[in-house]
Amino acid sequence: MSILLPFREQATRMNRRHPSHTPAPKPLPAPTASVWDDLRLPTEWPDDAVEVGRVLGAWGVKGWVKLLPFSADPETLLSARRWFLRPAERGARVFDGDLQVQIAHVRVHTDTLVAQIDAIADRDLAEALKGARIFVLREDFPALDNEDEFYWVDLLGLQVINREGVRLGVVKELISNGPQSVLVVQDGATASGEKATQRLIPFVDAYIDKVDRAAQSIHVDWQPDY
Asked: What's the pTM value of the predicted model, to 2 decimals?
C-alpha cells in the first residue's frame, strides 16, 4: 500500500546583514490592468482545485517563473497545462482575484521547477506573480498505474472503519513520516461535550485492509483504544 502524498517544503534563507544595511526593495513596475483582466477566471472557483505549489518569483528575462512544488514527486505540475492562481497570502499584491492560466512549458531545473505561462512575456510580469498559490484540478492529475496508490486528496474525509465494524472517525489530514505516511483520524465530539478523539494510523499494509473510494471508507486493523 503506498500513497502519493504532496508535502510543503519551506525554503528560507537567513539574512545575515544588519537590518539597517538592508536596501529597500525596488517597487515593481505596475503591469497593465488588461494583462490580469485577460487572465481573470471567467467562472466560479472550481470545487476540485487542489493546491500543489507556489510561485517563487521570476526566472530569467523572458517571463518564466520559478516554482516551489508541495510534492516530492511534482508530476502534476509537470503534466497539467491549466493552472489556477490565487494571490499571495502575505506581502504586496499586484493582482487581485483568481486567475486561470495556460502553461506553455514546464521543466525540472536543478532542485525545483521552472515554467513559462502564456501571456506572461517579460520579467516584470513574472515577478508580479511572486508568492501566487498554484492550484490544479483533480481531474488533471496524472492517472495512477497501481491500484494501491492514492493521492492524498482522495483520502481526506473518508470514514475509517475497523474489522469489527466500529467507526473510528474520518481522515482529517495526512502526515509524512519518513518512509511511510500516517492518517490523522478524528471522530466527532460527543453530545456531552467531550473532546474529539484523534488517532494516528500508519498507512501501511499491516494496518490498512482496503480503501473503498466508492463507499467513501477505509477499512483498517485498528482498535479504538490503540
From this structure: 0.75
